[in-house]
Amino acid sequence: MQIRSIIRIVGLLLALFSVTMLVPALIALLYRDGAGFPFVVTFFILLAGGAALWLPNRHHRRELKARDGFLIVVLFWTVIGSAGAVPFILSKNPDLSFTDSFFESFSALTTTGATVIVGLDALPKAILFYRQMLQWFGGMGIIVLAVAILPVLGIGGMQLYRAEIPGPVKDSKMTPRIAETAKTLWYIYLTLTVACAGAFWLAGMDLFDAIAHSFSTVAIGGFSTHDASIGYYNSTAINMVTVVFLLISACNFSLHFAAFSNRGHNLRTYWRDPEFKAFLVIQLILLLICYGMLMKHQTYDTWWATLDQALFQTVSISTTAGFTTTGFSEWPLFLPVLLLFSSFIGGCAGSTGGGIKVIRVLLLFLQGVRELKRLVHPRAVYTIKVGNKALPQRVVDAVWGFFSAYALVFVICMLVLVGTGMDELTAFSAVAATLNNLGPGLGQVAVHFGEVNDAAKWTLIVAMLFGRLEVFTLLVLFTPTFWRN
């Protein structure tokens, strides 16, 4: 393993990340909120730390193998997540503990959106912007990870159906080089962010909130600048803008690339994709169930208000964004539980959404159908097809392996939380909210995670990392085979 080359790369990433601290420092200067000092100090600390790692190893540029790639990916998220906690530790407002600072940082960077902070409306603009910015950078990191890096390492949702991706996307990469792929993804991501910010501003947000919420919307993060989240605005127009951009961001970014490339065939590019169609069907079914139940219980005064709330919460929770306009946990109990389970499905592979991913759930469903057919015709040979192409058995086996590992991590984390004294409902929903990178849960964590004990918070931080790194990327580091020469 090329340890010195890995240290060089991590040092470079840390030094680059330090530069981002200057942006909230400038926001503090612009709004004169006195919150810029922690970011300036953090900039120098991270820059010095990055230089200390990079300088002694700057000449080690050996070719990295897949095993090195796994370690780099895990180190990237853990090191940057830890570095992101420094401004929270140094800040006086909010006055967070060491554990809470790490929780808030990892929640932002993994785009989970679970917060320990109460009183967002009274926080300095620099802190508010920093939380949103962390989610935005985390969302971009997720896209590059899912589309450009994990497939090269032999893992990730993109690999499951790479032959099905339309347009120029072949062999898990949109362009021959990962650097070019990442650059293309940045262009798409930045374009969506600017468009989302403009739409929020036109819908009635002020410029600061429009930019801040565009960061967390395109990243499917869920952080807001207000305690009441999107419900603060009480605006149907803002709700609809959020829904549209959450749906766009929950789609495979490779499809966006292919759609932009194939001018004149944009809609056909999406419609030819089996995962996209399955994603829309799931959203429609959830919407109809939520709308019907809310109308039956007369939760809202008019059918239009019911539709507005049902559509927003359905899309927000099922895509793992976690924005709220109302206390959805106060809905008839069936609905919060249903939406919580829908977050296990999450967004499409190669999107900023969390969860197991639609393509894996689709393949699990097709596998189940195949087994039912085999019961009727034991000697018949059935193949699983995504679109018009048959998938090899190893892909189906990989999906079952992922699902088993996901369930195992979920059960272990939940048992640990119960062991810390947390009640069963809160423990279940807290793990679901963090492992699926959703954010809000039920019970004690329906609004925030501030009252959760420290041991539980560290467990949930680990759950966030497992969910964001597609489970196997982190699990492989715990196998003896990985560390053997």
UniProtKB/TrEMBL annotation:
The chain crosses the membrane at residues 12-31, 37-57, 69-90, 136-161, 184-203, 232-255, 276-294, 333-366, 398-418, 458-483. InterPro entries: Cat_transpt (IPR003445), TrkH (IPR004772). One of its GO terms (molecular function) is metal ion binding. Signal peptide: none annotated. The keyword Zinc does not apply. K(+) binds at residues 111-112, 220-221, 320-321, 437-438. GO terms for cellular component: plasma membrane. Keywords: Cell inner membrane, Cell membrane, Ion transport, Membrane, Metal-binding, Potassium, Potassium transport, Transmembrane, Transmembrane helix, Transport. It is found in: Cell inner membrane. It is a multi-pass membrane protein. Low-affinity potassium transport system. Interacts with Trk system potassium uptake protein TrkA. Belongs to the TrkH potassium transport family. This is Trk system potassium uptake protein. It comes from Photobacterium halotolerans.
